């Protein structure tokens, strides 16, 4: 997989953890990881969080290098907010189906067809789409941000139609939705979820708002990854059905080991289709190589970065105080 002989070859016999720890010090690197990363990556990260928390960390850090264990749009956000830092992503192919669903040229045409609307974009999009947007939102900040906009303000929301639809229903606010979906959350099956609810009577369901309405309708709690984690800690019962990418269960089991967390199944009841294939591309081996070689590296045209930063800054201003408050128990 790389010029120096690949994971199965030259890395044999290397103590990856020790090497990563040596390199992170040598490089003055901070390792940021999303909750959907493999447990071994979450466990060595300096910080594990949701998209909004990770954006804030990337903006604040005084490290020279940000090793971003997540997907490419997240690492791009780190570069947009901290351009003087070297931002590395263990696997540059770690994309996102939502980003893929929203090609910038088509989004631009959509915007131009609705000149009286402002464009709110979910952070799961390319830097080009961010640059075409007025405000960026994450799943933990979208509701608060939209609530601050005048009631008569017309809104385009992209690229996730399920997150947009959920907020639109919850706030009773019409929005023009871009028809994108997350392939991971789209794969949850209502039939299988109902079977699981019958198997664990009384267990609440926590769902990410990227899930389709058929799943959301059965949820007792809907929120971002950090919101779901907070719900898992605070809920009174001892069993939770989790309708989001299952790697977040690692943090739940660490925080409240006495509780039981059951991942909601995909369509055949038993598939791995709710594991994010993009997040799964990052491995300890690739993290080691990226710290060693300071690459793959996020590079960005300065004009694009400046344009994409504007709506991200608006998000950070409008969402101040969002995480850690108010996200638990809402539906
Ligand atoms: P969060 O902001 O809730 O962590 O969501 C990120 C994501 O990609 C969910 O699929
Ligand atoms: Fe994108 Fe879905 Fe993976 Fe999140 S889980 S990174 S939205 S493909």
Please explain how this structure is put together.
The chain is an alpha/beta fold and 331 residues long. It folds into 3 domains: 16-94 and 279-300, Rossmann fold (3-Layer(aba) Sandwich); 98-181, 3-Layer(aba) Sandwich (Rossmann fold), CATH 3.40.50.10800; 185-263, Rossmann fold (3-Layer(aba) Sandwich). Helices cover 40% and strands 14% of the residues. A 4-stranded parallel beta sheet has the order 2-1-3-4, sandwiched between helices. A 4-stranded parallel beta sheet has the order 6-5-7-8. Strands 10-9-11-12 form a 4-stranded parallel beta sheet, covered by helices on one side. The chain starts with 15 loop residues before the first helix and ends in a 13-residue tail after the last helix. The structure holds 1,3-dihydroxyacetonephosphate (13P) and iron/sulfur cluster. Residues 50-51, 124, 138-140, 182, 208, 210, 224-225 line the site of 1,3-dihydroxyacetonephosphate.
Radius of gyration: 20 Å
Do you know the CATH architecture of the largest domain?
3-Layer(aba) Sandwich
Give the N-terminus to C-terminus distance in angstroms.
44 Å
- Distinct helical segment count: 16
Low-confidence regions: 1-8, 323-331
Average residue-wise pLDDT: 93
Q: Any idea what the CATH superfamily of the largest domain is called?
A: NadA-like
Largest sheet: number of strands, sense, barrel closure: 4 strands, parallel
Structural class: alpha/beta
């Amino acid at each position: 997989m790389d010029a120096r002989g690949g994971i199965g070859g030259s890395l044999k016999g290397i103590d990856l953890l020790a090497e990563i720890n040596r390199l992170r010090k040598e490089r003055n690197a901070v390792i940021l990881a999303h909750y959907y990363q493999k447990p071994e990556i979450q466990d060595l990260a300096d910080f594990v969080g949701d998209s909004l928390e990770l954006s804030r960390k990337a903006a604040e850090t005084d490290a020279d290098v940000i090793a971003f264990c997540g997907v490419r749009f997240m690492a791009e956000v780190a570069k947009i907010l901290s351009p003087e830092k070297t931002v590395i992503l263990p696997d540059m192919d770690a994309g996102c189906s939502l980003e893929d669903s929203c090609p910038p040229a088509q989004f631009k045409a959509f915007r131009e067809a609705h000149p009286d609307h402002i464009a709110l974009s979910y952070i799961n999009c390319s830097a080009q789409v961010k640059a075409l947007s007025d405000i960026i939102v994450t799943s933990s900040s979208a509701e608060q941000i939209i609530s601050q906009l005048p009631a008569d303000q017309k809104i385009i929301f992209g690229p996730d139609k399920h997150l947009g639809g959920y907020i639109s229903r919850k706030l009773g606010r019409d929005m023009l939705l871009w028809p994108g979906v997350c392939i991971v959350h789209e794969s949850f099956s209502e039939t299988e979820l109902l079977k699981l609810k019958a198997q664990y009577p009384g267990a609440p369901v926590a769902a990410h708002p990227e899930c389709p309405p058929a799943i959301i309708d059965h949820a007792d709690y809907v929120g971002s990854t950090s919101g779901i984690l907070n719900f898992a800690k605070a809920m009174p019962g001892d069993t939770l059905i989790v309708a989001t990418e299952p790697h977040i269960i690692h943090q739940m089991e660490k925080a409240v080991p006495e509780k039981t967390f059951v991942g909601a199944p995909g369509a055949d009841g038993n598939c791995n289709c709710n594991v994010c294939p993009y997040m799964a591309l990052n491995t300890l081996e690739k993290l080691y190589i990226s710290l060693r070689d300071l690459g793959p590296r996020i590079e960005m045209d300065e004009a694009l970065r400046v344009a994409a930063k504007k709506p991200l800054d608006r998000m950070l201003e409008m969402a101040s105080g969002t995480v850690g408050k108010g996200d638990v128990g809402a539906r």
